[in-house]
Every structure is written in C-alpha cells, then in structure tokens.
Amino acid sequence: MRPLSALLLLIVLLAAPTFAQAQLTQVPGANSPTTKEQVPLYVPQDDKVVGRVSIPDEKLAVLVQPEGREWREWRTHTLRLAIGGLAIGMTVVLAIFFLYRGTIRIHGGKAGRLVLRFNGLDRFAHWTTAVSFLTMALTGVILTFGRPLLIPLIGHQAFTPLAEYSKSIHNFVSVPFVVGLLMIMALWLRDNIPEKADWIWIKSAGGLFSKAGHHPEAGRFNAGQKLVFWSIVLGGVVMAATGYLLMVPFAFTGIGGMQTIHVIHGLLAAALIAAVIGHIYIGTIGMEGAFDAMGSGEVDENWAMEHHRRWYQEQLRKGYVEGRQPAE
Predict the structure, then answer these.
(1) CA 236/CA 224 separation, integer angstroms
(2) What is the pTM of this model?
C-alpha cells in the first residue's frame, strides 16, 4: 500500500469514533423529527419547490409544482369527462333525432339528372382533412382512455406498444391534416363568408324539422355547413399550433405554459370530435343524397334544388346541369 493511501486510511479510522460520538450526543431541537416519516425531504417555498442545479436548464431545478397536481387531475378526470360526455351526448341527441325525423328524403324524388358539386381537387382536400382528423381523434382517444379502459382488457404488455404507435401516428398524421386544412381554406373560404340568408336558414333550422321538403334558400354552402367549416378551420389551426408546441416541449414556454397548452388542445379536440360526429351523421344516414357530394362529386338535380337552390340556379345558368340547357 502506498504511504499516502495508508495515511488517509489511518485518519479515517481514527476519526470515525469521533463522528459517531458527535451524532449520538446531538440534542434534538423543538422542530427536529422524531420518526423517519417526519424527516423533511424538501422545504416548500412559495408555490414551488426549487432546488439547485449546475446545468443550464433551470426548469429541471423545479422538484415539485403544486399546479402539476391540478393538471394531472384535469388530465385523468376532467378531459375524459369532456371528450366522453360531448361525444356520447352528441350521439344520443342524433339517435333521438333520427328516431323522430328519420332520413331526410329528397321530397320530389330523384330526377336522374346530375349536377357537379365538388370536383376532384375539392374531394381530395376534404378526404385528406377528414381521414387525418379521424385518425388523430382515434389515436388521441386511445392515449386519453387507454389506461382505464384498454389495460384491463388487453393488459400492459399489449397496451404499451399500442400507445407508442398511437403517439407516433398522431404526430405524423398532423402533417396531412394541416395540408388538407390549408387546401379547404383556399378552395372554399369565399363561399363560406356569412350572409343575410344564413340567418333565415338558422331561424328555420335549415328545414330539418319540416317533413314537407321545405328548405331555406342557400348558396353553395348553407349556414350549418359554414358553421362546420369555420369550426374546423379555426379550431384546426389552434389544434395544430398547440399540438406542435406539445411536440417540442419547453421550446417556447415553461411548465405552466405547457400545462395550459395541453388543456386548450384537449378541450378543442373534445369540441371538434362532437362537431364532426354531427357532420358525419348529416352526410350519411341523416340526409338522402348528401354523401354523393363527396363520394362521386355529383348530386341529383332535385337534391340541389331543395337544399341549395341559389347555387343550383347559378349552375343552371352556367350550363353545368347534365341534360339541361343553360338558363337565359
């Protein structure tokens, strides 16, 4: 053994009894812990518990943030209630309405003549936005409800890769969603400007409760479709912005800001999912002939006259109605 090492070992051996005796003779103070459960692990200061770090990232010094408990409560309870309540509530309302009204039929029956409503570019923009949104909604629901609903069914081993893939797909599909969003804004913005006729449509609820085939006059898009458009556009822009901020955590804000961004993202998702459920209902079983607009792109002439009379008359004047001469 080297002389220096031997000297250090000797010092430690001689000092050990002294240190032990000093600890045994310490007198507890008034605030000293009496049990191991009372030993303070940290001392709260203001609304945070901040330690000391030697690395540049100062936020890592925050050991405990009381607001984090509130956020966790919101994430595990309130958000689930919001998404589940709005989605299930909208489904129940539509089911009741369907039992009352049934499928809204073309009052005059199909004419057999077709009107081009949406071209290939329109449909590509719509389906790009729709499919990507539904994919993100599904993966988001898996991440939100997975622990309480899926783990008891499929177990932790199966849920872990499912959650990882869901997160990756959710982030990846956000790109075509934004592309589709920009496309529908460019293609349909001018046709979705609010106008006086929209108020008439709103007051009569678009004729949804009328069984006589009466529907208020509308242009290319009625007030209900305009409401869906602006909900998707404005909500989608905010969803995309908050989503990308969540993908780069703490790049632009701190812990509190990230929690606020997550709240906004989650509540908007809940509202948009409910709105899209209503949109899907009207476009499928809710209204005869509506799906054709985004399916083949062409709608029956009588459907166009009943639901979008002013737009149909414009198409007739331009000679876009199959088998019809342009109106003078």
Answers:
(1) 18
(2) 0.77
